[in-house]
Amino acid sequence: MSWNWRGIRAIITKDIKQILINKMVWLPFIILPVVLMVLIPLMLVLLPTLAADQMNPDDMAGLFSSMPAELGMRLGNLDTAQSWVFLAANYMFMPMFLIVPLMVSSIIAADGIAGEKERRTLEGLLYTPLSDTELFVAKVLVALLPALVVEFASFIIYSLTVNIGGYHVMHRFFFPEPSWWPLVFFVGPGISLAGLGATVLVSSKAKTFMAAQQSAGFLVLPVVFLMIGQMAGLFFLSPGVVWIIGAAFWIVGAVFIKIGAKTFNRGQLIVHI
Question: Could you tell me which residues come within 8 angstroms of residue 81 by beta carbon, excluding any fewer than 6 positions away?
Fold first, then answer.
């Protein structure tokens, strides 16, 4: 099949320009990384300094119980404050990092379809000389690519934040642990794909950008489960577990994209305008 890549690039360029002039879309791309990648991590790594008398190893008992023996041996050389900083930066915060690519891809996907309806520009888009599949691919790429850019930038920001913020306790650069590499480069793209796939399905029926966003709010539940599960000691996000989680997100994302590609057609979109 020969696709009209010139037309696809034109749609992507148009949507990116629309994103840049819509504060409701691009403002979260700044707020999310600042809050999730700077403010909250900084509070975590500075906690031993701000509340040194309240640090208690028993508070991390659940996390200690689920960690691999090899990591437990490494922590044996660290005091309570150092163990907290090391685990908080490298492991406890891992699920929250996934909120960034998930939310960015979902916001753009919602704006790319429901936002077009709200702005009354969808009808003009549907008359472009692109097939339904080509339109769908353009909408997927325009959500996925910025999400990956924001994710990778957030990873760099987070790395600098925790290493600099925790240096006075660790006396060395200690981030990232091996689990972060599959998390950033495999799980992150997978959860972005799953998020935008689900949002596309919701947005095709939603009439406004906000309605699509609210309907897609359930997407953060897997991230919340990962966070609670690790803190409670149900599992530990070792590299092997991270690869498995990533594979699950890729499978879910592929299913959503396949369903979305079949249901994304001009007739259905016009009905729900």
Answer: 48, 49, 52, 55, 169
- Per residue in 183-214, pLDDT (tens digit) is 999 999 999 999 888 887 777 666 666 766 66
pLDDT for residue 56: 62
The structure tokens listed for 264 are: 């994304």
Tens of pLDDT along 11-23? 888 888 888 888 8
Write the pLDDT tens digit of every residue in 138-179.
888 988 999 999 999 999 999 999 999 999 999 999 999 999
Structure tokens given for 201: 């399905």
Q: What is the mean pLDDT of the chain?
A: 82
CA angle 242, 246, 248 (to 5 degrees): 120
Please state, in angstroms and rounded to a whole number, the distance separating the CA atoms of residues 163 and 180: 14
pLDDT for res 115: 73
Contact 204, 264 (CB under 8 A): yes
Peptide bond before residue 176 is cis, with ω within 30 degrees of 0 = yes
Residue 94 backbone dihedrals phi, psi, to 5 degrees:
-55, -50
The tokens describing 63, both together, are 């996390």
How many whole angstroms separate alpha carbon 37 and alpha carbon 156? 9
- With vertex at residue 257, the alpha carbon angle to CA 252 and CA 259, rounded to the nearest 5 degrees, is 95
> CB of 230 within 8 A of CB of 92?
yes
Could you tell me if 162 and 92 are in contact, meaning their C-beta atoms sit under 8 angstroms apart?
no
Cβ atoms 196, 143 nearer than 8 A: yes
> Given the structure tokens 């008359």, which residue do they identify?
127
Contacts of 203 (CB under 8 A, 6+ apart): 109, 110, 112, 113, 114, 212, 216
